[in-house]
Fold this protein.
Amino acid sequence: MALLEVQGVTKEYQLGKTIVRALRGLDLEIEQGEAVAIMGPSGSGKSTLMHILGALDRPTDGRAAVDGTDIRTLREPQLVALRGQRIGFVFQTFNLIQTLTALRNVELPMIFQGVRRAQRHERARRLLERVGLGDRVRHKPNELSGGERQRVAIARALANDPEIILADEPTGNLDTETGESILSLLKDLNANEGKTIILVTHDPDAAAIADRIVRLRDGRVVSTADRERRA
Amino acid sequence: MFGEFLRFAGQNILHRRLRSWLTVIGVFIGITAVVALISIGLGLERTVNEEIKGVFGDTEFVIVDEDAFGQGHSTGEVDQYAVDLEYLLSVDGVRTAAVVATRNGFALGPVQADGSQQAAFPVVTGLSSALVTEFASFIGELDLANGRGFEEGEVYVAILGSRMAEKLGASVGDTFVIGGDLDAEYEFQLVGILAMPDDDSENESSGFSFGGTVDRDGLYVPFEAMSLLWPNDNSVQVTLVAVNEGEDVNAIADEVEEELNDRGSSVTAITYQDISDVVGTMTDAIFAFLAGIAGISLLVGAVGVMNTMFTSVLERTKEIGVMKSVGAKNAHVWAIFLIESGLIGLVGGLVGTVAGLALDVVGSLIISSVTSVTLAIVISPTLIALTLLFSFLLGAVAGLWPAWRASRLPVVDALRYE
């Protein structure tokens, strides 16, 4: 059974008086430990798909399952638990909380899971060291560079040790060199820690770290291409 | 988790320092006014109670005509009533009793050098000797210009108001006649003349000040003389009763009141507690009204908190989305915003309480310095605790709606918000 499974999923939004059909009967399966890049032009439904895969949103129709459980059947608290425990998000604009230090930003998901103070403190510190920011724990986001912020965001995504990392244009706001270091960090998480990585991107270089590239157009999958794993 | 949310709230308040302080000011002005008014009210109540207690003590009560208490008598004329002193003294627990009675009498001065005698129709006031010895707090010091007061066992002695003494041409040591009911006429020795009051006004009492009609035209005799002068009249104006230490003054007062009423007198027995209750009701009503007005500014403060919280929710929409995407439940988001608005209220309450108490101290000192009353400064821990609790709740209630709105934001919409 696939870790993530989407069958005939449609998603419609009401935008004023018009109905926008972001996904139109989309099928996709993602296995445990895979690194998948989702590509496609603007408006192709990439972000909507990511929201559904990440249990942030429910499909209008069709089946979207995590480990065989259709998220449409889950109530809000169960969706929250799913997001909090099994999925980590990395956003294009980092989405760190400006008033909190790097350490506290990483602790945030653990706070909501009720992890004890000493334990989450220790884990957050280790995760920041893991992403190369051991000396920046007390810095607030506005005291960090773009690359550093994205590293904090990755550390935060790893806070509750989720199986799935969903990254939405993680290099979109970074220069090439910094972007590469972020991609290699994500690749490393996939290759060495077995995390399932789903990367939504425009950037072919970013997609190059994936095992498989899924291309979308007009809310449907138009092609799926397996890539050779890079060494 | 609550501790963490408290930290979030504190950090957010500090992060938006200026706006937070402006909101706090909105709360603190109302709290200051309420705390100051209630504290001054409490001080006033305590001052009045202490004054009353200074007069009554815990062991004394007063019996007056039932219309004289609580009916807003202001004429100074108090109806008289019949009293049986022997009965009063026989009541269990009663230590002593004293009465004041007044009647319209006739006085004929001593024979002058030219053989003439001056006549007058003074108000004759009969005073128990116990009044001076046991109830000094009620009648004040006997302020005599000449002579002395009554002594135990004396009957045919009198004290005159200064102008009455002049009118009758009497000096201390002289003998003069007082006429009462029908043919009752007795000779009395003038033993003292009351001092002239400092103030020259007509109504100013001199020395004795109990009973309402005492002035410089007065004539005072021992109460025992009254029954000689008016043998058929046992009515009195005021009765003062002292009970033994440790007795329940209220219970005895009730018992005496009931018995006297059963005997046909319409009287009421007033204890310290009764007056204190009336004063308390009055001051409570006045200050509840004033505090109510001050409460309106609290309402304005609460609207300020609500406004700030709505702005905060709007500004932090994306942050709410992020929190939800990393596992925050609706209840977590709700709690974070609610604690934040409660904290704004609490800080406003803290600052307001300190400012209100300071205003109370300053206000009480000013009142004490411009009036003859030394107003007690009351700092009530209950008031402080209730104010702080109330201000936190005020903030929290004002934040309920914004926090609810924040918690209900759909996560995807919140994340997309720019």
Q: What stands out?
A: Chain B has two domains: 2-53+280-416, 59-245. Residues 71-76, 200-214 of chain B have pLDDT under 50 and may be disordered.
